[in-house]
Amino acid sequence: MRIVPLIASATEIVHALGLGKYQVGRSHECDFPKSVQRLPVCTRPVIPVDGDSAEIDRLVTSRVAAAASIYEVDAGAIASLNPTHIITQTQCKVCAVSREDVEHALRDQTTVDARIISLEPYSLADIWADVLRVAEACDCSAKGEELVESLQSELILIHNFAHRSSWQPRVAALEWLEPLMCAGNWMPELIAMANAVPVFGSAGEHSPYLAWGDLVAADPDVIISMPCGFDIARTRAEMRWLTSRPDWERLKAVRTGQVYLCDGNQYMNRPGPRIIESFQILCEILHHKLFPATFEGTGWQRMDTLPAKVLSAH
Q1: What's the distance, CA 117 to chain centroid?
Q2: Dihedrals phi, psi of 203, to nearest 5 degrees
Q3: DSSP assignment, residue 185?
Q4: 200-220, pLDDT tens digit by residue?
Q5: What CATH number did the domain enclosing 94 receive?
Q6: In angstroms, what CA-CA distances link 244 with 30, 208, 240, 248?
Q7: Most exposed among 11, 153, 210, 272, judged by the fewest C-beta atoms under 10 Å?
Q8: What's the rounded Cα separation, in Å, for the pair 314 and 136?
């Protein structure tokens, strides 16, 4: 068996299933566990990804309007690896290489006859189904069922602990900053499970655009910025799209020091086994008196919107 996952969460699923020794290639975004970084890269973005939120959105929108892919599959690299299994996704053409990209590359440029496994993560239930789908395709269904049961049990334990809190904050989770988008898919579920109220976004549905006026009108208790593909440092640099807007300083979350930055690349936007860590991060942010700050600094940081003497009281 020779496996080539072309989406970061798929690589994490493969390793969680104990199949890491069979992985022979990866996408340009697959970086966890660290051992996979030595494997051949089989994809690349066709647009510069080092621009700011607005520039990336402009380039992506232009490509999508022209029915052009955001990514390129290195068919030669895949052919040289001779995989038996290729894992891709059909959930979002913007976030990662799609099944259509892979099929075109294999059909037009290679004679590779690999089994293509497509992941479709819109909700927590879909994430569990994807784990089972990969396990079944790789002949380890029992291991897949065991893994899903373990992940679900961890999620429930954290959920039960979070519900000891009497505080149920209204939370705005932001997945992009210019233009503004709120987090959809599995994130509203996680926020609700964390004993909080998701102000925007619908569970199981794509992340929608959000008007600045709607955020101001909602005036949430907590704002969590988690741009897709951005780490904490990059997210902090992008916060200017919010802090420069009218009424930013009037928002309740800003006035009370409840604005947080997350590593949306490693955690919130990866629908795989580390969804548990994403949930833990949410609970650390929202219920810090109950949860130790295990991921503070690596998975999340508070954005300093108040003087230090005021923040220390929270």
Answers
A1: 19
A2: -55, 135
A3: B
A4: 988 888 889 999 999 999 999
A5: 3.40.50.1980
A6: 34, 22, 6, 7
A7: 153
A8: 47
